[in-house]
Amino acid sequence: MKEFGYQRVFDVSGAVALLDADPDARFLGGGTNLVDLMKTGVERPARLVDVRELPLDTVELMRDGGLRIGATVTNSDLAAHPEVRRRYPALAQAVLAGASGQLRNMATVGGNLLQRTRCGYFADVTKPCNKRVPGSGCPAIKGEHHNHAILGASDHCVATHPSDMGVALTAFDAVVSYETADGPGEVPLSWLYLPVGDTPHRETDLPQGALITHVTLPPAPVAANSRYRKVRERASYAFAIGSIAAALDVQDGVVRDVRLAFGAVASRPWRARAAERVLAGAPADAEAFAAAADAELTAARPLPHNGYKVTLMRNLVVAELTRLAEEATR
Amino acid sequence: MTTVTTGTRAVKGSVGTAHTRVEGRDKVTGAARYAGEIPFAELAHGWLVLSTVARGRVRSVDTAPVLGMPGVLSVLHHENAPRVETDYPGLLGSAPDPTVAVFQHDRVPHMGWPVALVVAETSEQAREAAEALVVHYEEEPHDVDFYAGHPDAYAAEGHMPGVTAKGDLEPELAASAVVVDERYTTPEEHHNSMEPHAATARWDGGRLEVVDSNQGTTWVAGELANLFSLDPASVWVRSEHVGGGFGSKGVRPHQVAAVMAATALQRPVRVVMTRRQMFSLAGYRSPTTQQVRLGADADGRLRALDHSSLSLTSTVHEFVEPSAGVARVMYDADAHHTANRIVRLDVPTPTWMRGPGEAPGSFAIESAFDELAEKCALDPIELRVRNEPALGPVSGLPFSGRNLIACFRKGAGRFGWADRDPRPGLRRDGRWLLGTGTAAASFPAGAAPSTAAITAEADGTFTVGINAADIGTGARTALTLIAADALEVAPDHIRVRLGDSDLGPAMIAGGSMGTRSWAWAVTAAAGDLRERLALGDGIPPEGITARSNTTEAIGALAPKERHSFGAQFAEVAVDVTTGEVRVRRMLGVFAAGRIVNPLTARNQLVGGMTWGISMALHEEAVRDRATGGHYGADLAGYHVAAHADVPHIEADWVDDPDPDDPVGIKGIGEVGIVGAAAAIANAVWHATGVRHRNLPIRPDRVLMAGENA
Amino acid sequence: MAPATPSTHSAISLNINGEKRTLSVDHRTTLLDALRERLDMTGTKKGCDQGQCGACTVLLDGRRAVSCLQLAVAAEGREITTIEGMAAGDQLHPVQQAFLDLDGYQCGYCTPGQICSAIAVIEEHAAGWPSAVTDDVRPEAAPPPLSADEIRERMSGNLCRCGAYVSIVEAVARGAAETQAMTSADLPQTEEAAA
Predict the structure, then answer these.
(1) ipTM > 0.95, yes or no
(2) CATH no. for residue C141?
């Protein structure tokens, strides 16, 4: 880890001004990903701008029934918040499924969305990686990839996004607000992450030096009947090999509203819009759920060792929607 | 179970009564200091630099820019490091692994080979300088491919013969009514003790002092004396608290590098491995691929047993994971063949890891036995009863005690085995399919020569000096109880000193032999001391000291098959739609000699079984063929079982004192893991009807097995 | 315009176990290394240095955190509680006592982290925080009892390689019961004092 400067900031404009002035500076939130990456040499910032004490640490219930979540709200506070648990239970479950109690106390909402992939090649500076060193190659494609992407990947990178929180936020149409030295902006979360293409090192649509300030969840009555389910290689404290955020509203046996997003299958939290389209107005039964999953997963391009994810995600869609349908009619 | 806190008065009967750890208070308050935590004035920090190629030569090391960095004191590498000697007999009599002799030549035999040590004033400076150090290599093509039927494999002896053979396999297999012929694999596994390897070395008045984390200071001091050609009396190694070892904490590059740097700089130097470095430097269990052929009559009696195991080692040192050895103890057959083979690849040298040989070997043989039971339509326990040998199947020697069937009977009763429907795939609890499985366990029970000294102090207390290592086994407490009984005093009259090479030679904490070996020496010294105290001359201010050396007594032991045994039971739940496997409960019943401290013994046996869960479901180090290095070499990439993976586990035992041991001890450190993974795999079959012969039983494997069924 | 080279060291003061400690740190120094290498407080352990094992768990402003990923300079102004601050003089914290009595450890290296984590788990549970195994996370649902499964999930960020989880879970359960008993024993007094 190389030496770096450190500044704590207390207002947003000061924070973005500092980053605007120094392209080698990074925002430091909880540090749970950035400090680790600095230790492994993946990140070598010249300056850290500590944003943890910015006044962005509240979750507000909006008049329309949506939520406005400050970027420095910790994962723990988000998961414990009564309005999150009441209105978007899948979001609370997703956050609780991530990392450990210690890490959730430290990690922030903004940092969670901008965390980097846990691909083992990316994290190891002795190995090639197009995301870390553009043009160096992607060894995962012919190497270890049993937990890599099946959707939206490219020949240049097959890494997945590790966030659980982001999957639930994506299902519920979250919008990311940010601040730059040139003023504020916002972008829907499902557009925040750029397609992989041949530029896997360019991960988000945020302008250089932008600071995420809020994540806004629009009201979604369907979200009150939602679940997050995560499958991983030990029972806790591990990244997903496949996860799903699902919300379902059923009336008279027919799907009235549905939200589906997948985790650990793509370079971003994957909104399953093709599946949602198939389900709109369809009967709320296992057959329709399976057809919806298949509609989404026809786009899957599995590698030799991660084809199981297609089966896994199909099974998760059916299992979780079935359970939600039962709960909706109870 | 009643728990007596150490200090309660008792004159006899300390052994066998539950006692909390004598150092417990220090451990729960953070006062216990481990190797990297002892303060030294003028301490410098060394950081190892590891090779980034898997095979080749170091062409040059660009030390100049790094030496100019803040705080950097020195860069040691093959051109400037002190020379060491490696031509001496190591722990088991053979030459030591030359990979501990760092910086002696330009050859790079594997990815992660130490090529330099950067020493600086602070650890932050050392780390940054180590990362900045540019090393130029002449890279050569490497080969890390391990697979069954490797053309370069050869039979090799490790701590046992490579090959044993009696009878003709093929005719017996042909005459068998039932045959099982399957391949089982286990992956590369790493010890990953919670405390990383750490050593601080300094010279003090012509004496080399090393504070280290190891499983035996006698061992480490002896090796350092040999390596640096020093008088053994001038090397002092201490290791008071050790944060786990499991076989990996012997002589490793960090101690040698620390001594080199302390010698070069003439000030104390600490070298601590990072978690990632441990994957290259701390040893590991080789992957195995094992072919098992069993032939039996229709009633399950074995006619043929053939167990052939392949493991790997480095190009520079021969180490064998002797997985085929377990059948030499467990089961007899008219034709009985076992073979341990190895292949040399461009990888680090593997080493002993909890249950070496028995842990992977029992997965194969005990899974195969379950398959045989299925084919014979026999209960798996009954199959084992029918194949219980009277004598060592290969040695022909009598057992010092076996009690395996007693373990199965006690365990079966407690686990509810009698109610089990043997048919697979029938039980369901919501999304989970349920199943139960069993397997046998064994591990050698031995003792090795040790010395001890006990001083009767003038105040009526006793100081026991025994160079044991308490790596979490509870040795300090066990030896307190043993000394208390041997001296017929309460445990609070006993003070045990250990982990200090100046205490004299003693067995390491390894091979499940530590407590028995040390207890023997303590018991012998206590006997001598009591005789002297019986003279009634009073105790002078300096006390009265009696010493023991068990070399002769242990040498006089008659050759026998000496082992601990056990029966493992597991219940699992499997969601075949996601591939998740959860262990719901486990029970192990062991015949493991006299139990010294039931509180810590139960914990240690349960710990072994927890390793079994971890081995069955989680652990797997992945080697990247292209680079020859690991993929995901950290605790996020290499999964060990976490709290949520481990249900309530029970361990119990049958009365089984060893008749040839003064205290009746056998050993419990390793038998707990043996058979545990097989019991779980057998339970997964019972739940789903699918055999999993490749560990770990990952979700993707369960999922695709269901898909292909 | 190139930014001015920032200073790479800072003089800071840390509030540790109620005591103010001042020191100059390299910004790279983690709270873990500051404790262990600068302040000789070695009760907090370094197991992985990557947030993957929990051995370095301390409390920051009363909440558990991994000190290996917490920069010391960024911990200034926060209330830091380490394992050394858990006992009241000679009186062990009930969780420490339970670990000792029930053998909730083996080698002891993960133990300070397990204990710090357990103390926080008990508080998080008492505050009504759900976990990943809580069946219904909605605030209207009854809070889950601190069952063995809840303890296991909540403690999963603390690895124990010796495999002492079974006795650790028992110790956490006993520690929670003792803590609760102490708290309820305190309650009437508090009410009296208030009245």
Answers:
(1) yes
(2) 1.10.150.120
From chain C, the residues in CB contact with A106 under 8 A are 60, 65-66, 69-70
CA distance B263 to B13: 50
- So what's the pLDDT on residue C182? 84
What does residue C24 show for φ and ψ, rounded to 5 degrees? -100, 130
What CATH code is carried by the domain that includes residue B564?
3.30.365.10
Tell me how many residue pairs between chain B and chain C have CB atoms under 8 A apart.
182
Query: Is the pLDDT score of B1 beyond 60?
Result: no
Answer with the one of B511, B539, B555 that is the final residue of a domain.
B555
Whichever domain contains A267, its CATH number is: 3.30.390.50
Residues of B labelled catalytic: 670
Inter-chain touch C43–B604, beta carbons under 8 Å: no
Backbone angles phi, psi at B415, to 5 degrees: -85, -15
Question: Containing domain of residue A9, as a range?
Answer: 5-50
Q: Answer yes or no: is B322 within a domain.
A: no
Dihedrals phi, psi of A255, to nearest 5 degrees: -70, 120
Residues of C in contact with B472 (CB under 8 A): 105-108, 162
Domain for residue A136, yes or no? no
User: By the CB < 8 Å criterion, does C24 face chain B?
Assistant: no
Cα B146 to chain centroid distance, Å, stands at: 23
Q: What is the pLDDT of residues B43-80, one digit of tens each?
A: 999 999 999 999 999 999 999 999 999 999 999 999 99
Give pLDDT, residue C192. Answer: 40
pTM of the full structure: 0.97
Helix (H, G, I), strand (E, B) or coil at B591: strand
Q: pLDDT value at position B7?
A: 41
Nearest to A212, CA basis, from A290, A111, A139: A111
Domains in chain B: how many in total?
2
Which tens digit of pLDDT belongs to each residue from B548-564?
Answer: 999 999 999 999 999 99
Cβ pair C70:A31 closer than 8 A: yes
Q: Which domain holds residue B492?
A: 3-32+448-555
- Tokens coding B160: 């046992």
User: Does residue A212 form part of some domain?
Assistant: no
- C71 with C101, same domain: the answer is no
